[in-house]
Specification:
Helix content: 40-55%
Strand content: 15-25%
Structural class: alpha+beta
Radius of gyration: 26 Å
Order of helices and strands: EHHEEEEEEHHHHEEHEHHEEEEHEE
Number of strands: 16
Distance between the termini: 81 Å
Number of helices: 10
Length: about 400
């Protein structure tokens, strides 16, 4: 028995999810926008503060885009064909132009016979999606990932059996490599945050793992990507690219303070920019063409921001073989800063390269012992990359 064609009209996101997005997304947007405003209040804007601010602002833009798509995105079904409309534009496929479909964990995609045209994407949270999917699956064939060519890998209709076997083997190796790198990233991040010993080895692991993930993209072209592949033939390296940088970032917050954040910029910009270009070069197949997915740029930007700052700073500290200089400025006052990981602050007199009174982080035990006029011992290091850093000594 044939399945009747769905009703000819516009189909929006299911009403329950539209209400959910309308309530939750504005709250999250306000939260992420408010975080930089709190950091900016009464503070300068060096690179570290800008790094803090760009990440939540990026997430705020992401939720804003999702909210706009929930409000104005829809699918139109007519007698002629189906049209996908969204914030970034619209495109249509006539019924006779459709080659087949694929269903992933988030979308039902309709692929055209003409490879130059873009597929139509229907979210699985669309209203009456069961009725739409029932008709499509009864009328069109289910395409395999190789036929859908979602990975932008050129089709090989005349490939020999040996060539097809080699391609399948390469895809399997890429997926295994992604799993290995992603699992290693969780281990390295936990190692850096909770027990970084041996210290230099932990730091090198945090630096080399994201670089290894970026190189893996070049070794398996079109088979690895930074973001979640959404059921395609590619595997995600998102965790391997971001988590080690997060681990390095948190470890540096615990272990040291910089005399001048501006001194990091001459390293952070080329390191972060070079890492971003390396990721873009490995992901260009997914950034251009009819199946382009610009959403992975968020992953690339986040990974480059964390790596660009954390890698040179961590290397500068872990491999610093310079001679320390010790200072003992007097305590002026102390307070607890609840906005930071190590929030026990001591305001001390000018010392060494600092010409004004400044705050230094101290441990909880040291904070409890300090009284106005007490000497606070500080160890100043030159840094392996010439970025001076210091920490208090109990």
């Amino acid at each position: 028995m044939s399945v009747p064609l769905p009703e000819f009209r516009k189909y929006y996101l299911a009403s329950g999810w539209r209400i959910f997005m309308g309530v939750v997304a504005p709250l999250l947007i306000a939260l992420f926008v408010g975080m930089p405003l709190l950091w900016w209040r009464g503070k300068p804007m060096p690179l570290l503060t800008a790094l803090y601010c760009l990440i939540p602002l990026g997430f705020a833009l992401l939720f804003l885009y999702g909210l706009m798509e929930a409000a104005w995105g829809y699918i139109t079904i007519t007698t002629e064909g189906i049209t996908e409309s969204g914030v970034l534009g619209r495109h249509q496929l006539v019924w006779v132009e459709i080659k087949g479909y694929r269903i992933s964990k988030n979308y039902l995609r309709l692929f055209p016979v003409d490879a130059r045209k873009r597929p139509v994407k229907i979210g699985l949270l669309t209203e009456e999606i069961e009725k739409i999917a029932r008709w499509i699956t009864s009328y069109y064939p289910n395409l395999s990932p190789q036929e859908a060519t979602e990975t932008n890998v050129p089709p090989e209709p005349f490939a020999s059996p040996a060539g097809q076997t080699a391609r399948t083997k390469q895809r399997t190796e890429a997926q295994q490599t992604a799993r290995l790198l992603n699992r290693a990233s969780w281990i390295v991040a936990a190692w850096l945050i909770f027990y970084p010993a041996p210290y230099t080895l932990a730091v090198m692991a945090g630096i080399l793992l994201p670089l290894g993930a970026a190189v893996a993209q070049g070794l398996y072209p079109g088979l690895l990507r930074p973001d979640e592949p959404d059921g395609s033939g590619t595997a995600s390296l998102g965790f391997a690219l971001i988590l080690p940088g997060v681990g390095l970032f948190v470890r540096m917050l615990f272990d040291m303070e910089l005399v001048s954040v501006a001194a990091v910029q001459r390293w952070a910009y080329p390191v972060g920019g070079g890492f971003a270009l390396l990721l873009v070069a490995g992901s260009w197949r997914h950034l251009v063409g009819k199946n382009r997915d610009s959403g992975q740029l968020i992953i690339i930007l986040t990974a480059a921001l964390f790596f660009g700052y954390s890698a040179p700073v961590a290397y500068n500290v872990a491999f610093d073989a310079g001679l320390p200089a010790y200072y003992a400025p007097r305590l002026l006052r102390k307070y607890i800063n609840n906005d930071e990981f190590s929030g026990f602050m001591a305001i001390v007199q000018p010392w060494g390269p600092l010409r004004d009174s400044a705050g230094v982080h101290v441990s909880r035990t040291q904070y409890q012992r300090l009284r106005p006029g007490t000497l606070v011992r500080v160890r100043l290091m030159p840094g392996a990359l010439g970025i001076a850093w210091f920490r208090t000594v109990e």
